[in-house]
Specification:
globular; Rossmann fold; alpha/beta; single chain; six-stranded parallel β-sheet
Amino acid sequence: MTSRSPKILILYASYGDGHYQASKAVEASLRSRGVTDITLLDLMAEAHPLINGLTKFVYMQSFKTIPGLYGWVYNATKQMPQEAPLLEVINSFGISKLQQTLRQAQPNLIIHTFPQLAMPRLLKRTGQSLPLANIITDFDLHGRWIHSGVDRYYVATDDLKAEMISRGIAEDRIRVSGIPVKPEFNHQHPAGEERLIGPLQDLFPDNRTGKTTVLLMAGAYGSMQGVREVIERFMALERYRVIAVCGRNRELYRALHEQLPPHPDVHLLEYVEQVAALMRKCDCIVTKPGGITLSEALACRLPVFVYRPVPGQELNNARYLAQKGVACIARTPAELTEEIDALFRDPHRLTELRQKIDHLRRPEAAEVIADDILEQWFAPKRAELVLS
């Protein structure tokens, strides 16, 4: 590290929480290494709040009402080159805000955790030269991430690296890092030493040990559709406990409370701070297949069950992990409970699955990215060039 701390700008988007969480994970790792001047910018929200609100609404509604259309558009545009007219339009949004931010923050490096690549366009227009890094936050590659102006790519897997090379990206510009998750997902605790606090502290009483605990990230589904039936099916199986996390979806939380009878092995929670600790206490997870959540689950060595994935990057994420043998895709509550029950009745299969998780998980991704950034651009031998 040089005597002058680098200035880093991280650009993200709030389409879901994952891109922000990835940004915060990398920020935390950089700060732990002495980098103090870091700016996070939700580019579309700051530059075009009305357009951002509209596109977020359309994005979320397309997931709920016409997921097939969203998936078709996503897959139809996966191979788009950077000069495609649609990408030229998309990457023109936010340029004025970026100019203002560059003047104020004066960064030495820009990181993208969302493929809104206005920065290469701006730098070309102004003649400026700044290193750009893209952190790809899915197990699937879309053409929006690829741009000749990007100096470094951080990807989840060796397979993604190979795909990028096949699309013309030089191998030395790609680092297989994993998808960055918060530091608590990379902390190892001796068995029995990790403590849950607050509303979580009574979830694992001694008299319920021996039962398989299913963590259901119910809030990710946005509605009651199928969630109640999933829980009811587990209530009928005596060897399972269900912890359903509704997140900030208070409507779902209230509806489940009203419609489900009290049961000693069913626990409904709202927003949870200790997600990593809770995951490590559970035996498997049922979730939507966002890249961040999947990486968190793998970091905690949890078998992943994906329920009704939406076509697009989520379904592609799920298919990739299923192909690797660490996830299962279910379309109905019956299929979901049957798949989980089949896994936990087969100890040999469960052991093999966890071994496959160990080959794929990269809980240290944020640390790898931070170290690589500092080595690539801020090592003493590069300092004079970068910080001049």
